[in-house]
Amino acid sequence: MALKPREAARGASFVDRNAFLRFTAALFEARPTPSGLGRRIASGVLAPLLYQPTDSEPEEYNKWYYNTNVWKKTTWMGIDCWKSVSDLWNYQEILFDLKPSLVVEFGTNQGGSALFFASVMRQIGETFKVLSVDINHKALDPAARRDPDIVFVESRSTIPAIAEHIRRLRSEFPGKVFAILDSDHSRDHVLAEMKLLRPLLSAGDYLLVEDSMLNGHPNLPGWGPGPYEAIEAYEHEFPTDYTHDVARENKFGWTFAPNGFLIRN
Ligand SMILES: C[S@@+](CC[C@H](N)C(=O)[O-])C[C@H]1O[C@@H](n2cnc3c(N)ncnc32)[C@H](O)[C@@H]1O
């Protein structure tokens, strides 16, 4: 039986208050004004107050997203782009705000993510280059390979020649750097990539360490030390190098890169 508003509000605890608000919303829903104002208030103003998360939704969705392999069926302009779509949207927002002149990606695969970065950067409209490094470019899609704004380098990501290449591109394209680590996801390899980038990144540059959701954060528990543990190890050694961009990391409620949104100090 529905409560009267006054009954619902009397001696209201937090839950009671929500029950009252729920009732009010139902009232508005049931009797919209001719202008639809009631309905708009109910859905726009009250809905966020009425929502009661259990706090397990982000983790469950993260697990669902990973374990159904939907990320493996995600494409950009027809080319595989193995990311969560909310992370991609987040990257687009970061790129727009940061306006880097150089994007460095470790781990190309088919090239969908490199093409995504190049597409966003072109739309921003300032001079830029994308460098995408992979140990093996056999999977690289010809359409991505033809992109004039992307330099593809077939190499291990952690060798000094890659550091030299980044240094050269930095001086050719002065400005901010957005770097993203998405190659071999073992702790030691990611740690080596972070250390390679240490002298190459400057204050305000952005580092995204992908797939730190492995090894039970929350996916694939038992996978073994991965990117999450690499970030921990790096921060143990160099505690003042980065500030965590917590607001962006939490913006969409979940990410494949927990703890991995880093701004160079
Ligand atoms: C997860 S995939 C990259 C996905 C791609 N960034 C995307 O979003 O679609 C990882 C890639 O890292 C490459 N890789 C593995 N070990 C590597 C290494 N030591 N150095 C550079 N690339 C490596 C693999 O060949 C593979 O193509």
Question: Would you kindly provide a brief summary of this structure?
Answer:
The protein has 265 residues and is an alpha/beta fold.
Structure description:
This protein is of the alpha/beta class and 265 residues long. It has 2 domains: 5-50, no CATH class; 59-264, 3-Layer(aba) Sandwich (Rossmann fold), CATH 3.40.50.150. Helices cover 45% and strands 14% of the residues. It is built from 11 helices and 9 strands. It has helices at residues 5-9, 14-30, 37-50, 57-67, 85-98, 112-124, 142-145, 160-172, 187-197, 227-237, 246-251; strands at residues 75-76, 79-80, 102-106, 129-134, 150-154, 177-181, 206-209, 242-244, 261-264. The strands form 2 sheets. It has a 7-stranded mixed sheet, sandwiched between helices. Strands 1-2 form a two-stranded antiparallel ribbon. Strand 1 (75-76) and strand 2 form a beta hairpin. Helix 2 packs antiparallel against helix 3, helix 5 runs parallel beside helix 6 and helix 9 (187-197) crosses helix 10. It is globular, with a radius of gyration of 23 Å. The relative contact order is 0.11. Mean pLDDT is 91; it is low at 1-13. The protein binds S-adenosylmethionine. S-adenosylmethionine (SAM) binds at residues 80-83, 106-109, 112-113, 133-136, 156-157, 182-184, 189. The site of S-adenosylmethionine (SAM) has 20 residues, from helix 6 and strand 4.
